[in-house]
Specification:
Elements lengths: L3 E11 L2 E7 L11 E6 L7 E6 L8 E7 L7 H4 L7 E9 L12 E7 L4 H6 L3 H6 L2 E8 L6 H10 L6 H4 L3 E7 L10 H6 L2 H6 L9 E7 L1 H13 L13 E5 L7
Parallel strand pairs: 7-8, 7-10, 8-9, 10-11
Antiparallel strand pairs: 1-2, 1-6, 2-5, 3-4, 3-6
The protein binds flavin-adenine dinucleotide and NADP nicotinamide-adenine-dinucleotide phosphate (NAP).
NADP nicotinamide-adenine-dinucleotide phosphate binds next to strand 8, helix 6 and helix 8.
C-alpha cells in the first residue's frame, strides 16, 4: 500500500500514554513543530487517519510520535497495540502553525504544553534552528500526575549527551515541569505560574514582554484559550505562517479530552 511505513520501536509510559518510532519516507521534508496524518489500515480498505504532531526533529532519519490511548478511540484503541515491524499509514503532507516562521525574532522562546501537547515541542527542542533563533528556550509542561511527565523529562535529560545539540542546550533550555493533582517538586497550572510570576522568579527571568518573548501553545482548547488570554494581557499578539507575531497556538486534540 502507498504511504506505508514500518514501526521501529514502541515505549509505553503509562496506561494512557505511549511513544513510537517508524521509518521516514525519503521524500518527507517538514519543519519541526508540524503535524501529519497517520493511522492504520481500516477493515473496509480505507485507512483510519488522525492528526499527529511529529515529535522528532527534522534532521532525524526516523519519525517519532507521542500518543494518547483513548480507551474507545477509533484509532488509538488499536494503535496502542502496535509492535516493532508493524505497518502504519503516513500521509507525507506536513502542516501546522507551531513553526519558527510564524514568530518574529526574539530573545526567549516559551513552549507551553499540557499532556500530549508536548509532542511538537519534543521536535522543536531537538532542532538546532531553535537555539540559533533564541538565546533561551523555556519548556513548561503540565500534567495531572508525575508519571505523565516522564516522556518529556527523559527526553530533556537525554539532550545533555546529544552529540548534535548537547552544547547548544546547556544553560539555555530551561525545563519547567509541573503537576496539578499529585505532589511533586513543582506544581501548578501554567496559567497560574505565569500570572503569579512564579515561573519567572523560579527561573531568574524577567517577566514576558512583547519586545523580547515569543511563545508557542499546545494543549486542550480550554488551556489554549486561557493561555492566549494571559499572553494577550502581557501585550503579545497571535501570529500565523502568513503573518508572524509574538505567539502561535495549536490544538493538541479536538474535543474536551478523554
Ligand atoms: C493538530 C493536531 C495534532 C495532534 N497531535 C497529536 C499527538 O501528537 N498525539 C496524540 O496523542 N494526539 C494528537 N492529536 C489527537 C489525534 O488526532 C487523535 O484525536 C487521537 O489520536 C485519538 O484518536 P482516536 O481515533 O483514538 O480518538 P478520537 O475519536 O480522535 O478522540 C476521542 C476523544 O479523545 C480525546 N482525545 C483525543 N486525543 C487526545 C489527546 N491527545 N489527549 C487527550 N485527549 C484526547 C478527545 O476528547 C476526543 O474527542 C492531534 C490532533 C490535532 C487536531
Ligand atoms: N490524567 C490522568 O491521569 C487521567 C486518567 C484517566 C482519565 N483521565 C481523563 O482524561 C481527560 C483529560 O485529562 P488530561 O489530564 O489528559 O487533560 P486535562 O484535563 O486537560 O489536564 C492536563 C493538565 O492541564 C491542566 N489544565 C487543564 N485545563 C487547563 C486550563 N484551562 N488552563 C490551564 N491549565 C489547564 C490540568 O490542570 P488541573 O489538574 O488543574 O485541571 C492538568 O495539569 C479528563 O476527562 C480526565 O478525567 C485523565
Amino acid at each position: 500500500m502507498p504511504d506505508t511505513q514500518t514501526v521501529t520501536s514502541v515505549t509505553h509510559w503509562t496506561d494512557r500514554l505511549f511513544s513510537f518510532r517508524c521509518t521516514r519516507p525519503a521524500s518527507l521534508r517538514f519543519r519541526s513543530g508540524e503535524f501529519v496524518m497517520i493511522g492504520l489500515a481500516g477493515e473496509n480498505g480505507k485507512p483510519l487517519l488522525r492528526a499527529y504532531s511529529i515529535a522528532s526533529p527534522n534532521w532525524d532519519d526516523e519519525l517519532e510520535f507521542y500518543s494518547i490511548k483513548v480507551p474507545d478511540g477509533p484509532l488509538t484503541s488499536r494503535l496502542q497495540h502496535i509492535r516493532v515491524g508493524d505497518p502504519i499509514v503516513l500521509r507525507p503532507k506536513p502542516v501546522g502553525t507551531l513553526v519558527h516562521d510564524a514568530l518574529l525574532p526574539g530573545e526567549r522562546l516559551w513552549l507551553l504544553a499540557t499532556g500530549t501537547g508536548l509532542a511538537p515541542f519534543a521536535s522543536l527542542i531537538r532542532d538546532p534552528e531553535t537555539y540559533e533563533r533564541f538565546g533561551t528556550v523555556v519548556l513548561m509542561h503540565t500534567c495531572r500526575e508525575a508519571s505523565e511527565l516522564e516522556y518529556g523529562r527523559r527526553l530533556v535529560e537525554s539532550l545533555k549527551d546529544d552529540p548534535l545539540i548537547g552544547e547548544m542546550v546547556e544553560g539555555r533550555l530551561l525545563y519547567y515541569p509541573t503537576t496539578t493533582r499529585e505532589a511533586s517538586p513543582r506544581m501548578g497550572r501554567i496559567t497560574d505560574n505565569l500570572t503569579s510570576g512564579k515561573v519567572f522568579a523560579d527561573l531568574g527571568l524577567p517577566a514576558m514582554t512583547p519586545g523580547t518573548d515569543r511563545a508557542m501553545i499546545c494543549g486542550s482548547l480550554a488551556f489554549n484559550l486561557d493561555v492566549k488570554a494571559v499572553l494577550e494581557g502581557l501585550g503579545l499578539n497571535e501570529g500565523a505562517n502568513s503573518e508572524p507575531r509574538e505567539f502561535v497556538v495549536e490544538k493538541a486534540f479536538v474535543g474536551d479530552g478523554i
